[in-house]
Amino acid sequence: MFPIRTSVPNRYPALVTWAVIAINCAVFLFQNSLSPPGLDVFLVDFALIPARYFIPYALGIDAPALPEYLPFFTNMFLHGGWLHLILNMWTLWLFGPAIEDRLGHGRYLLFYLACGVLASVTHAAFNPTSVIPALGASGAIAGVIGCYLRLFPYSRVIVLVPILFLPLFFELYAFVFAGIWIAIQVLQGVADLFSPPDMGGVAWWAHIGGFVAGLLFAGLMSAPRSRYRAYYADEGVLGFTPRGTR
Predict the structure, then answer these.
(1) Angle between the 105-126 and 82-103 helix axes, to the nearest 10 degrees?
(2) What are the start-end ranges of the E strands in the chain?
């Protein structure tokens, strides 16, 4: 189930969303420019290795050269490959602008970073002995999806579901899309608890932590409704209301 379009229009340019996407892409290109040994050192310093905080010097891992908890922040700007980067940035491109439009640029930036940090904390708490570097913007973007669910539950999301070689398109309520998405994360996260801690893979609990943070922060950080200007006549998505409903 891959989202390809949303129905909530924006009144203001999504400057922060664009900037975050640009920074993620720039950091990824820098990663790709490093030699394998240099990349290893870079990931040890900037990616999140939970065992470092729960089992000091576990399996030969030294204390980080940077301030001790900086990886909880920096890991959300790193990615493990082109597909990882493209999927994350595409999802942020779809859902981020509507949230930024409602929160405002400054609040949205704080919201995004807070969701990413809490996603990192959740991942570390559920994988305390892991020595696998965790990285990616997925936790922060999960927060954006959680916020989208709370602010626009009855808006529509167009999703692509490939059946063998046949692409099928469906229009779902946002709460249905987000509900299916988080259910998959929880099921995979629970299954992951019974896997060996030294196995790599998707940071499911980071997604769950970010999503819950987004749900909670949506009500706290939304700008007052009086600050929203009215939509212009040519703004919006054809066939949908300003809140993305039919």
Answers:
(1) 130
(2) 2-6, 156-163, 166-173
Let me know if residue 183 belongs to a domain. Answer: yes
Apex 229 CA angle, 228 and 234, nearest 5: 125
- Domain of residue 149, residue span: 2-224
Q: What would the pLDDT profile of 174-199 be if each residue is shown by its tens digit?
A: 999 999 999 999 999 888 877 766 66
Tokens of 154: 């009855």
**φ/ψ (deg, to 5) at 133:** -65, 125
> Per residue in 26-49, pLDDT tens?
999 999 999 999 999 999 889 998
Beta strand ranges found along 92-186 (DSSP E): 156-163, 166-173
Q: Are 154 and 245 in contact (CB under 8 A)?
A: yes
* CATH for 166: 1.20.1540.10
Task: Give pTM, 2 decimals.
Answer: 0.90
* Pairing label, strands 2-6, 166-173: unpaired
| 241 assigned to some structural domain | no
Inter-residue contact 64 to 125 (CB < 8 Å): no
Residue with tokens 């305390």: 128
Provide the sign of the torsion angle of the four alpha carbons 55, 59, 60, 61, taken in this order. negative
d(CA 244, CA 7): 5
Helix (H, G, I), strand (E, B) or coil at 244: coil
235 within a domain of the structure (yes/no): no
